[in-house]
């Protein structure tokens, strides 16, 4: 007899089953094999998992496990071997694979009971890796927009910068958005880092005075940057639009042309609410957004830029910083995407800045669920009740009062 400590306090067979299934999925076990395991565990009395003096085991014959599933004995045999290989069961069988309750022959789940702590650790790690994978794909989606529009602007200039063709070729080699989910975490990290490096090179060309204009005006780089950001904000597509004939190297705005999606402002068939939404947004520049941001949000914006304080960050740094800060305070990425889809990129950024500011507003009840607050703003807009201009003006007034009343030194230094 093998020994085990039973289930953790408060657990039952179903909770244990969920953990085992999750672990099997992490280990890459097929859905058919997982179904076989579920049948095995369901045939064992729940009390057998709580009593350390007995081992839970299934003595059902293979014919019972097959039961109308359309699989063969060989398939079930392979499933049992696979489950044993990942440590969920132990096969103690008689001659010719026989099972018998009286003789104690069958499929024992004692190994799985002794693997609970490792399975819990694997589950936590898997969730963390999935979250990082989702965040990296979101970052790549933002980079795709900024790189594509930036290259389109640079290519349209009378004197494109040296290396523009090479940058376009590199951009054209990026994998499609729908292929990213098949990349390993390490592969995706490397790709996003390379994409970010390309974006920084483009930023470097924009910042060099006269290089791409033939003129020395200090404001020309800002003018080009404004062109890039206007192109991005003119299309409401919240990421990459995947179309069979699309070529990633084309510098046009994905989905912004006459055949673009209905939620793009430049589509020939925009939704009725798009012009209305655009009118409800306050006129605001990057510097004002940075001044309105909380110290924590500013750190995220700075990190998304050059890693140093910049009172006039790029739109990419602001969008990435807001998304990162919202994730830090517990907002689900789907809530952020819903805000972009409904409010446009700039509207979502403003909503994010306001949501973050509400966490530290001393005159209002604390927000216990920032994700719910952001989704509430999206729902309010769907009902025609959201007034971002009023919220924006309220935050401006609050920052002015804080300046007059005197803030902690670290906050004042940042402003």
Could you list some keywords that capture this structure?
415 residues, mainly alpha, three-stranded antiparallel sheet, 17 helices, 3 strands, disordered C terminus
Plain-language structure description:
- The protein is built from 17 helices and 3 strands.
- The protein is elongated.
- It has a 3-stranded antiparallel sheet with strand order 1-3-2, covered by helices on one side.
- With 415 residues, it is mainly alpha-helical.
- α2 (31-42) packs across α4.
- Helix content is 57%, strand content 2%.
Average pLDDT: 81
Strand arrangement in the largest pleated sheet: 1-3-2
Sequence of secondary-structure elements: HHEHHEEHHHHHHHHHHHHH
What Rg is obtained from the alpha carbons, in whole angstroms? 28 Å
**Biggest sheet, open or closed, and with what strands and sense?**
3 strands, antiparallel
Name the helicity range. Answer: 55-70%
Give the CA-based shape: elongated
Question: Count of helical segments?
Answer: 17
Structural class: mainly alpha
Distance between the termini: 69 Å
Q: List low-confidence stretches.
A: 209-221, 241-279, 408-415
* Strand elements, count: 3
- Roughly what fraction of the amino acids lie in strands? under 5%
């Amino acid at each position: 007899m093998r020994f085990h400590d039973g289930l953790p306090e408060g657990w039952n067979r179903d909770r244990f089953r969920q953990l085992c299934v999750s672990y099997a999925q992490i280990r890459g076990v097929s859905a058919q094999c997982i179904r076989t395991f579920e049948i095995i565990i369901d045939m064992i009395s729940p009390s057998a998992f709580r009593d350390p003096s007995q081992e839970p085991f299934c003595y059902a014959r293979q014919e019972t496990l097959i039961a109308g599933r359309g699989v063969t004995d060989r398939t079930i045999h392979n499933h049992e071997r696979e489950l044993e290989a990942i440590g969920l069961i132990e096969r103690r069988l008689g001659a010719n694979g026989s099972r018998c309750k009286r003789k104690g022959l069958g499929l024992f789940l004692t190994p799985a009971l002794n693997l609970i702590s490792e399975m819990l650790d694997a589950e936590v790690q898997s969730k963390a890796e999935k979250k990082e994978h989702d965040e990296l794909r979101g970052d790549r989606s933002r980079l795709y927009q900024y790189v594509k529009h930036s290259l389109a602007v640079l290519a349209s200039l009378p004197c494109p910068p040296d290396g523009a063709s090479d940058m376009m070729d590199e951009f054209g080699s990026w994998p499609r958005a729908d292929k990213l989910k098949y990349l390993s975490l390490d592969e995706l990290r490397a790709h996003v880092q390379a994409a970010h490096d390309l974006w920084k090179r483009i930023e470097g060309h924009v910042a060099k005075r006269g290089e791409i204009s033939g003129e020395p005006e200090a404001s020309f780089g800002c003018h080009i940057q404004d062109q890039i950001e206007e192109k991005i904000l003119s299309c409401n597509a919240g990421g990459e639009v995947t179309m069979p004939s699309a070529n990633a190297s084309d510098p046009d705005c994905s989905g912004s042309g006459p055949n673009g999606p209905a939620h793009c402002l430049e589509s020939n068939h925009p939704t009725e609410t798009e012009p209305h939404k655009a009118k409800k947004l306050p006129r605001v520049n990057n510097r004002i957004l940075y001044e309105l941001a909380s110290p924590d949000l500013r750190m995220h914006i700075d990190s998304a830029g050059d890693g140093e304080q910049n009172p006039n960050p790029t739109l990419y740094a602001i969008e990435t910083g807001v998304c990162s800060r919202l994730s830090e305070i517990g907002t689900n990425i789907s809530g952020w995407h819903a805000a972009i889809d409904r409010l446009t990129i700039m509207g979502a950024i403003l909503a994010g800045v306001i949501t973050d500011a509400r966490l530290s507003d001393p005159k209002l009840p604390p927000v216990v669920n920032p994700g719910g607050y952001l989704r509430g703003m999206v729902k309010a807009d769907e009902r025609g009740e959201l007034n971002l201009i009023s919220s924006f003006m309220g935050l401006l007034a609050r920052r002015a009062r804080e300046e007059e009343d005197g803030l902690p030194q670290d906050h004042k230094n940042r402003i």
